[in-house]
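Standup notes
- DV: blocked on the single-chain target, sequence here:
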Amino acid sequence: MDRAWGSEVLIWPFPFVIASGWASPSSSTIEAAILQTIAYADVFDYPLTVEEVHRYLVGMPASLAVVRASLNSAPLSRLLVHRQEFFALPGRASLVTLRRRRAEVARKMWTRATHYGRMMAALPFVRMVAVTGALAMDNVEPGDDMDYLIITEPGRLWLCRALIIVLVKLAARRGDFICPNYLLSERALVFQERTLYTAHELTQMVPLAGLTVYHRLRRLNGWTARFLPNAAGPPRSISEATPLSHPVRALAESALRTPLGGWLERWEMQRKVRKLSRQDGPSEANFCADWCKGHFQSHGQHTLEAFTERLRQFEGRT
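- DV (later): unblocked, structure below
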């Protein structure tokens, strides 16, 4: 059940389950935490290794040794499927093959995603670039988008977005679909939407540039530890991008910090917000001077609903 606490919207990990009134009688146990972790990943057709179960363990800090022992002991050894190094929900053993195939697609996609991320990092006013979404977890199909979260200097987010869209169009001509669907300014680093879904998005993202800003982002959103207490730091190590053409970028930033640059920023924001706000249907999108959240499919809400449904099959079994 969602709970309001001050200005925060929380999904309490225990003793009840997200977005419903249902709760397992034993939901404060390590077994229940592991089931929730694997059930959440199952929403994305994604079986987990022991190390991944440990990193993304829902709501309960525990050592890798404890997680490993619990996975290999009753009741979890009876409730879950164990194939090769992966653990999955009952009847989902086929996901192991799917995960391996998608990982191979991701391996080839990462080279291009890193290249485009570093190009974005070289643009004026960009302060951090991170890969998010399915690619961050190596869980992509051919032709999937490469999702990014970009953090910008305050007051120039929409000009920065306009420059990035030029790159998006150039990439599309090469058959690559890059999706910078979340831009934040440095004065909007504290996330107000505090759910298990948002915690996953923050802890799964892979920073490509701006590690100092990345670590500040994680520190300012320490609330993620209530949901994923083991998921500290980036999930993988990638050499940080070195921004290109420092003198050119500095010159461009100086030119656009003028009153003319401020007028262009306001004009671009008003123009794009009018256009983006006309999207039909349910949406988690949100736009203002300090963020451009282009999430039009209510993916977070649908994910949490699907997660809750998966947990119902284990009611009373832990």
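- Follow-up: Residues 95-121 form the longest helix (27 residues).
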